[in-house]
Every structure is written in C-alpha cells, then in structure tokens.
Amino acid sequence: AKEEGQALKPEVTVRADEGGRVVMTVDHGLTVEYSLEAGGTQRGAFRAKPFRADNLVVRFDLGSWRPGDTPSGNLKGTTRTLDRADGEVPLELGLLSRDGWSLIDDSRGPILQSLNDVRPDHVPWVEKRKPPKGYTDWTLLAYGHDYRTALKEFTILAGSIPIPPKFAFGVWWSRWWIYTDDQLKQLVGDFRKHRVPLDILVIDMDWHLTAYEMMNAGYVDLARQPLGWTGYTWNKSLFPDPAKFLTWCHEQDLRVTLNLHPASGVQPFEEKFVPMALAMGIDPHSKPYKHVPFDIADERYARNWFDIILRDLEKQGIDFWWLDWQQKNRTSLGPELNPTIWLNHVFFHDMERRRGADHRGFIFHRWGGLGNHRYQIGFSGDTWITWESLKFQVYFTATAANVGFAFWSHDIGGFMSKDKTEAELFLRWIQWGALSPIFRTHAWRVKWIERRIWMYGDMYLKLMREAINLRYSLLPFLYSEARKTHETSVAALHPLYYEYPEMEESYSYPTQFMLGLSMMVSPIVAPAERPTYTSTKESWVPPGTWIEWHSLRQIVGPKKHSDAYSLDEIPIFVKAGTVIPMAIPGINTSPMEREVLVISVFPGPQGVGGEYFLYEDDGISKAYKQSGFGTTRLQSERYSDTSMKFVAGPRSRNLPGLSETRSYSL
Which of 279, 419, 430, 593 is most buried, judging by how many CB atoms fall within 10 Å of its CB? Predict the structure, then answer.
C-alpha cells in the first residue's frame, strides 16, 4: 500500500533453481524470470548473458513483457517542437501504455557527475558513458493501468517536477516585433487602460543587434548561421538605457525575459567578444577573424558564457531566459547528449544555485526528451494559425503528462499565417489558453497578425478579457494544483484515462481533459455554426454527477453529452461536491494573497461533502522544497436542498509575507 505522493515499497523475494533460472517476485503481482547460461570451470556453474526474449520475461497483471516486444498500446508522450505544424504531428513514445508496460533504454545515455556537490556555483556536469560490451541499462514500468503510480515511480528515479514561480501562471505578452522601450511602455499602458492583466514581457530577438536585410539575402556569420540571429549586445537605438527600462518594468510588477538563439557562439562584433575569446584561449585580434564556437557540453565554455556574457544582462534586470535552440540534436559529446535538454539543465541549475535560495530554477525552452520534466517551462514553437493547430494543442498538452511534462507554453493564437487572424478563432484559442498550463500569446513579425485583444472590437475584447479574468480568478486553484503535480508527478492538465482507465470512452475524446481531479474541460476547437454563432460539441461525462460551469445544470454520467455553446461559453464540468478556491482578478498575480478568497462550491447530494487543500508559499523561492509552505483545508457539506455548511480551517503554517487572517466570499 502507499499514501498519496509516496513510492511503493514492495516485498521482494528471489529464488534460483538448479537449472540456472532466477525468479524474482514482487508482492504487487510482478514476477521477473531470468535464465543464466551454463559455464565456468566448476560443475553446475552459471554466468550471466545479455538479455534476450528467450532468457528474460516479466509477468504482471495485464500480461507479460520480453525484450523486443512492441508497445502497440503506448499512449504517446510529446515532441521537441511544433514549429511549422498545421495540426497533428507525430509524438514520441510515452511512459504509459494500455499494454500495461513501457521500457526506458538508457544504455548509451551520458551520466551526471558530482551530483552531491552543493557549492553555490556548482552545476552537476555531464560525462560520456563508457559501457562495457553487452552493457544494458533498462527500466521497465509495468504498472498495468495504474498510470498515476507509474508516473510517481518514474520521478522517484528521474527527479520531481518543480513548481514554477507564481508569476508564471499569469499572462505573458510575446510578439516577434521591433519594439522600442517607449513602445513597450505604451503597450503596458494599453493593458492597464483596457483592464487586461499582465505579468511577463517576453522580448524577442530584436533586443540585440540584428541584420535582417543581410540575413534575408543569405549572409551568414562565422559559425555559418544566419547573420544576426544570435546576439548578446543591446540594440541601443531601440533600448538606449536597458537597465533603466528593466527597472521600470519591475516597478510595474512585471518580469522580463529575452530571447536567446545561442548556436553562433560569440561573434567578433559582440561587446564582450574580447574577454570571452581570451577566456577560451582564442586570440581576439587574429586574422582572419575567429569567433568563439558554441559548445554547451564544454564546462569551460558554459562557465565563461554565463560569467562573461549573460551575468551582466541578468544584473541589469533580466529575470529568466527564453532559449530558442533550433539546430542539430547533438553536441561535441556526440549524439547521446541532446543540446536541448542539456541547455535546459545548465540554465535551470545555474539559476537555482547561483541566484541562491530566493530563486527557483526556471527556464523557457523546447522539450529535450525524457527527463525534461525537471526543467519547466516548455516553448512549443511556431505553429500555423488554423483551427487544426488549436485542436491538436489540446490533445498535445494533455498527452505530455504521460512523460511528466506539465507546463507547456503555446503561441496562443498561433504564430504564422498569410491572412489576418479570425476574431472567433483567436477567442477560442484564448479560452483554451486560459485553462492551459501557461498563457502566452505570440505572433510572426508581420503587420496583418494582431495579438492585442483590444484591437478586435468591443464585443471580442469583452469575451477575451472574461476568459483571461477566469484564469486569474482560478489562480489559487491552479497554483495549488501545481503543488499536487510536484508531489504526485501527475500534471494538473491530464487525459481522462488517468481517472477512468478501464472505460473505453476515456481514450476516445482527445480534445477533452481533466484539470485536477474534479474539473473537466472540453474546449471549443471548431468554428461556430452560422448564423447562430453557437458551437455544438459532444463531450463524454464520466460516472457520477457533474455540474456544467456556465449553465449550472446537473449531468449524470457515464454518458455522451452534446450541447450548443455560445461565444462566451467554455464547456467546463465540475464534479458535484467539489470545492474550488478562487480569487478576485487583479492586474497581475502579485496581490493574489492579499485579496478575498472566493470559495466556489458545487454541491453534491444531500449528506455528501467535499474538501480541497489550498496551497500557499512565497511564490518565488526554493523554500517550497522544504517546509516553506502552508495548506488550508476547505470543507463543505450539503444538509438539504436549501442549506449547507462550509468550514475553512487554519493555515497549517504561518508564512512570512502572508497575513494571519483572511476574508472569505462564499
């Protein structure tokens, strides 16, 4: 047996017979049988041999596994990027399977060294594995349809899913556009004027020196990359005083991230080229000119890159980095080390260790493969602006939970198109985004694509703002769910089959997902019928009584449920008896703790109660990994058709910066 968030501690017995067959039995129904090979100088001696289908079998409740078996029922995971996708793309295999097993082969993967070194400036580094002949490093997950336990056990081996800073759950503004600092200030003012919340400014590559005309004409730099794509020197014609601008952003309670395309290394035209070249043993004045090649697998390069190039930018006020690696999937260590996941590892640990206990590790980059769940947030890349792209993002995000990747950030509204974005499509994308892990709009650098919601007319502004305000009102719930993700290894946004693995319907509705244990969402991902402007969508309602968010109608499952939804409605279903902590939306996430806590109760049958544990911490530090957090138990019970009881318990621990008293609105 296990408690929530704890690993199984099974009883294991091992026996061997005279024929060299070794049988290991685990108390929850798993048996491993391995046949040794006769050999050696003594009679009856045996020796190990490489695993094959004829000498190794694992038996479990749903069947068995042998080396070479094909996972026909694998439920998929995610993929590195959706760049240029227009709808569905192939996904990598995940950790969960209807077959009841999945295999992780790490026989050739690199290994980390110095993991126990806790020096503040130390980042655990990588070295190439040098396995002997016939070496095998396999992990078999054979948990049948107990998907939650499989994910928890995986993270015990591979590391937990961190909680992103609280500001990450707010609105991110991103646009590939040539902004000046004054234009960005005006943009922030427009957010305030139109009462649209904002927490993060994402500044794309135009913060640094670029050369678009030459790049578009085919010019390349010394690394043979497009000229101006990589850069570390502020464009002073756009940002004459970067530190002053970043200080202004922080005074507005905004965080700022800059785009990095690191593939070109450090070129001779960069401000810090000379000290970087000298630190790497390169003559900065040699002819023909040389550059400092990018090599993230080289610890010397990485340390100098951070200390000489990036650290000064951070001191000016950059809060975290948007990494934008788009090149080959190998490093100087070989194809075994993926540069995407290694960049994520290095940046995440650099922030955690060098910035001290007051800062959580936090990056923004593409998926680097299995294990990338340790480094959040994900940047899914540049999709086409179509209904098919929107539809696939819903399935794609839920399925990423199958590899523990809980916090994908998408280009809400899509990235590229030859035409203007339809207002209805952008609205439905925003409604989906409001309930997705991270809310970030983005777009290509062309005039006909618009992401300022106030540019779509009063009606659509109102509807889009309502969706964004819904997200901000749910922040106490969403942040509490992030804690549950950290403890259980199950993403808040996950497929229905986690809860209903033996019901075929839970696998059959790819644009429907669970948000926590008791909220289910089925976003609109197709255009409305004309002239009613309503969208008909069929959803599957699992067993039990569910309450539709907008209409408050009760629906008893299991059943297929079809309804028409107007432009202001999102198909959301809440299990009867659920308690959801909410907030009064503000201009950003900062005042969330100081406001009234709004409790939404979706009453269950008479005599049946519900409860929820509100989670709180300081929102920014690593203290949550120890004891720097508190929980509040919220309970409700329905007495009759007209009466109910609600009880809010005390916070389990008083925390610095949080009031010891609180107001509730029920």
Answer: 430
